[in-house]
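ARCHIVE CARD
Drawer: 12
Card no.: 0347
Subject: one protein chain, sequence and derived structure
Cross-reference: see card 0346
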Amino acid sequence: MTAAPGERPLLALRGVELGYGRAPVLAGVDWEVRAGEFWFLLGPNGSGKTTLLRAILGLLPPRRGTLARDPARAGRAQIGFVPQRCDMNPALPTTVREVVTLGLVGVPHARAERPARIARALALVGLDGFAERSFWALSGGERQRALVARALVRRPSLLILDEPTESLDVTSEAAFLDSLAALHRDERVSVLFVTHRLWIAERFASHVALAWRGALVAGPRDATLAHAHAAAAFGSALRARAGAAAEQRA
């Protein structure tokens, strides 16, 4: 899915500067996220990914520039957020249904809609029949999928995930990424995936935003990964990929 010509972007940043103290973390940020795109926000630790994410979520106002969200499609009720780690107390008995229901906080809806919303969200992430199970009895990959369901129960136009695979083993990570790609393809949800893992973006991204040394480079995947900033941030990894590709073509 691609955005219709002339369609308003979900997010539009113009000349944005972000920071906490006197020195900016990121400056001169120009970036648009449009419907149907699968974005990866890349960068080494400390490059400003979290700062930018906080601004997008409305938790950090820009010091300069403008950050606009389409009010009809990217207001707070239309954004689903999946954190890196579970933000609940494991000492509290909690069912998967209760976890997913938390995603409806702040979303106008009729109470009678809840069962159908919850069932659909769980079905989308492959957790049909899990509603009454203990959240804490799930595997790591299943918990992450339940957190995605918590975001999807909002019926978002934009799904934002903050390094969601960091605590997963290889098998769970692969299954999670495949289910996310299917969700993007089949449900036409725009995705913003925050990570420092280059290979995930190379495989799944349609677009990449790269935070590096106080700046952001953003655009289609291949063009962004060919930029000098990408070479500086991920030089050895990119050279290894290029060498492997050349050997396959030989």
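Annotation on reverse: The chain has a mean pLDDT of 86. The radius of gyration is 19 Å.
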